[in-house]
Amino acid sequence: MKTLNYVGMDVHKETIDVVVFQEDEREPYLERTIRNEEGVIRKLFKKLMEGGSVVACYEAGCMGFGLQRMLEEMGVASIVASPGRVPRRPTDRIKTDRRDARRLSEQLRSRTLEAIHIPSIDDEAVRDYLRAREDVRLELVKTKQWLQKFLLRRGDPVREA
């Protein structure tokens, strides 16, 4: 019998904590930490897809949208949730990767997560370029101010640039 697997992931540079719930089960079907490598991820999801349909989610972060694009390419329905909009109970004070993955999986199953817009690869490249450009501009302003203050301390006339 094919079942529906709900996969919550807490994604980091080196590892991914994965928690899988099946349909209405009270306890997770799978709790595991895997390496954040394409081959390992594909192997896990292919195994899960053999047993039924898979829906996955993770919180948006500095890792970008490569994981989401890979899952969609594999045929796995996936969403990326905004960390600020993930419902949390006031008593959830202890934060661990496994608990975060479990919470995401449970909320995916109960349909309380709100997906964010996934930009196209071109849109993401433009966004990254604009952010880098702004960072360089701000660094230039700071460097000019530092140089003007240095010259002022030395008694040299400060010229407006």
Q: Could you explain how this protein is built, in words?
A:
By secondary structure, the chain is α/β, with parallel strands linked by helices. It is built from 4 helices and 5 strands. It has a 5-stranded mixed beta sheet. α1 runs parallel beside α2 (66-74). It is elongated and about 80 Å long. It starts with a strand and ends in a 7-residue tail after the last helix.
Would you kindly provide a brief summary of this structure?
It contains four helices and five strands, in the order βββαβαβαα. The chain has helices at 38-50, 66-74, 97-109, 121-154; strands spanning 3-11, 15-22, 30-35, 52-59, 77-81.
Give me some keywords for this one.
161 residues; alpha/beta; Nucleotidyltransferase, domain 5; 4 helices; 43% helix; elongated
